[in-house]
Structure formats: C-alpha cells, structure tokens
Design a protein that fits this description.
The protein is mainly β. The protein contains 1 helix and 10 strands, in the order αββββββββββ. The chain has a 6-stranded mixed sheet with strand order 1-4-10-9-6-7, with no helix packed on it.
Length: 139
C-alpha cells in the first residue's frame, strides 16, 4: 500500500534551500575527455538554464577534439562561445536541440573559457548567471 502526504509549503521551501536547488550550483569536477580508438577526443556539452554540463573539460594538446553541442529543451535562447589562440579555433554558435558538431585540434596548452554571452536589457548576462565553463588543454 502506498501512502502520500503533502509537505507544507514552508517546509518544502526549507528543503529546497537545504538541497541547494535555488539556482546556485557547484562547479563540476574536471572531465578528462578520453581518446577514442580512432584517436579523437569526443565530448557532448549541453547548455541550459544558465549552465553548461560538463563545465570543465580537460583535453590533450595535439589530439583532435570533437565537441557535440546542444541545448536542453526550453524557450530561452543560448549561444556557445569558445576562443583558442587566433591561429587555432573560434566557435560562436547558437545552441539548439539539434546537436552541432565542431572539430579542431588544440595546439597550445592553457585554459580557455567557454560561455553564453546572451543578455536581456537590464539583466545579468547568461555568463554572469553561471553559464560558463573551462576547456583546459594539457600537454
């Protein structure tokens, strides 16, 4: 037999606050992108309500990378911007529910931020709200 109880609104709010579901979230642990058997480092990044998941990638310099970018379903438009040194790669694309694939080979070790630059008038940018991540290139 299954019984259900309603939680009073004040207690439900306290539980949400204690669980950290108010929009603030801790950064992901770095995700070390594995090299597939064909020598390509593949990773999917999902953008959504002011987040990217994963939000910290570690890839190897000199090894091809394939990013598969998409947005979670929703009505708020998002973009993905990533700039490596000028002679390497720059991505600035709108995110949609259909995945978009970008391939490049990072040449220089370093830390390169990716983010959503979208902003509504008088409000913080999506990047300021936490929609940002880091691509870390290691030797």
């Amino acid at each position: 037999m299954h019984s259900s109880r309603l939680i009073p609104p004040g207690i439900a709010l306290a539980l949400c606050l204690a669980a950290g579901t108010t929009g603030a979230r801790a950064a992901d642990d770095p995700y070390r992108v594995p090299v597939d058997s064909d020598g390509i480092q593949r990773v999917a990044i999902v953008g959504g309500s002011y987040f990217f998941k994963p939000d910290h990638l570690v890839v190897k310099a000199g090894t091809p990378v394939e990013l598969v970018l998409r947005a979670e379903p929703g009505i708020v438009p998002h973009r993905f911007v990533l700039k490596l040194p000028p002679d390497q790669v720059a991505i600035d694309t709108r995110l949609g529910e259909e995945p978009r694939v970008f391939r490049f080979t990072p040449g220089s070790a370093g830390r390169y931020p990716y983010y959503c630059p979208n902003k509504l008038l008088f409000f913080d940018s999506h990047r300021d709200k936490g929609m940002a991540g880091m691509l870390e290139v290691v030797e």
